[in-house]
Specification:
nine-stranded mixed beta sheet; mainly beta; 9% helix; 2 helices; six-stranded antiparallel barrel; serine-type endopeptidase activity; Trypsin_dom; binds 2-acetamido-2-deoxy-beta-D-glucopyranose; Thrombin, subunit H
Length: 259
């Protein structure tokens, strides 16, 4: 049951994720053609993926950097007190929340220049410090940061529990706000350019969308981006972007040192 507070929170977020799969909830005929190609994945393949959960609803994703450190999007944090958000690691199906333990957030470090306006803004990056350490194993582990320049285009993996479908008859803000995945989805998208602190993956197929904000974008085994926004620029054409890890390395490192 999604509460009205969560709906208003969701409405105030511009989010993201992942498209889809043979096992996602909608019958095949209802799917928007070509917003496809992602699929249900296992948490073992993406053990660094976590869900940021408010009122039992995964509002965003994040990545594990250390046993007690999560990196995510700033806009996933700005509407909530740390006490409202629980971090679930090692989860594949959202229904597992019943049996898994959500971990509280002790501290939130939002980029100092981040200015939440409700629209996509720069410096959309935050680090969460957990109240207790995660226990690493086959379903829970960390991801390394991309620290070396890379050439584009490059193929990358996006994952999360966000929308698996879009209705292009609706406005850009509403088109993909629904169809939230039950099982963790992942897909491959191609990063075409990196500029102004963002990496971009225009696509007619796999994209990150509503609910995928904060989730990992990984290439060559390293975290290269944090899902931030997805605009529909024409029917069936997405322009997905993610905060570029490479461009925020100094901030990430100094923030980690300050914890
Ligand atoms: C958060 O929870 C802790 C522990 O229950 C409590 O001490 C603290 O006052 C809470 N903070 C807020 C802002 O509600
Ligand atoms: C944040 O953004 C709003 C809306 O664009 C602007 O009015 C305000 O001055 C900005 N605040 C800062 C601190 O930059
Ligand atoms: C990305 O993956 C696709 C499908 O495997 C492949 O055709 C394409 O060459 C890859 N692109 C890059 C830049 O590696
Ligand atoms: C898409 O949105 C339009 C306009 O609101 C609506 O009429 C239609 O039923 C929706 N399609 C689906 C598959 O939900």
């Amino acid at each position: 049951m999604v509460s009205s507070s969560i709906l208003s929170i969701m409405a105030s977020l511009f989010l993201i994720v992942l498209i889809f799969s043979a096992t996602s909830a909608l019958p095949h005929q209802q799917r928007v053609k070509r917003v496809v190609k992602g699929s249900s994945t296992s948490i073992e393949t993406i053990p660094y993926q976590v869900a940021l959960v408010v009122d039992n609803f995964p509002i965003c994703g994040g990545s594990i950097l250390q046993e007690n450190i999560i990196i995510t999007a700033a806009h996933c944090c700005c509407s909530y007190l740390p006490n409202d958000t629980l971090i679930y690691a090692g989860m594949y199906n959202k229904k597992e929340m019943r049996n898994l333990k959500g971990i509280r957030v002790k501290d939130v470090k939002i980029h100092e220049k981040y200015n939440y306006t409700g629209d996509p803004t720069p410096d959309d990056i935050a680090i969460l410090v957990l109240e207790e350490d995660l226990v690493f194993g086959p379903t829970i582990g960390k991801v390394g940061l991309m620290e070396e320049d890379f050439a584009v285009p490059v193929n990358a993996t996006i994952s999360g529990w966000g929308s698996t479908n879009c209705n292009f008859s609706l406005s850009n803000e509403q088109a993909c706000n629904g169809w939230f995945a039950t099982e963790l989805q992942s897909g491959t998208l191609t990063i075409q350019r990196r500029e102004n602190g963002l990496i971009y993956a225009p696509s007619t197929e796999v994209t990150g969308n509503y609910g995928d904000s904060g989730s990992p974008v990984v290439a060559n085994g390293k975290l290269i981006g944090i899902a931030r926004n997805c605009d529909i620029v024409a029917p069936n054409i997405f322009d997905f972007d993610a905060t570029s890890i490479l461009d925020y390395l100094p901030w990430i490192k100094s923030t980690l040192e300050s914890i």
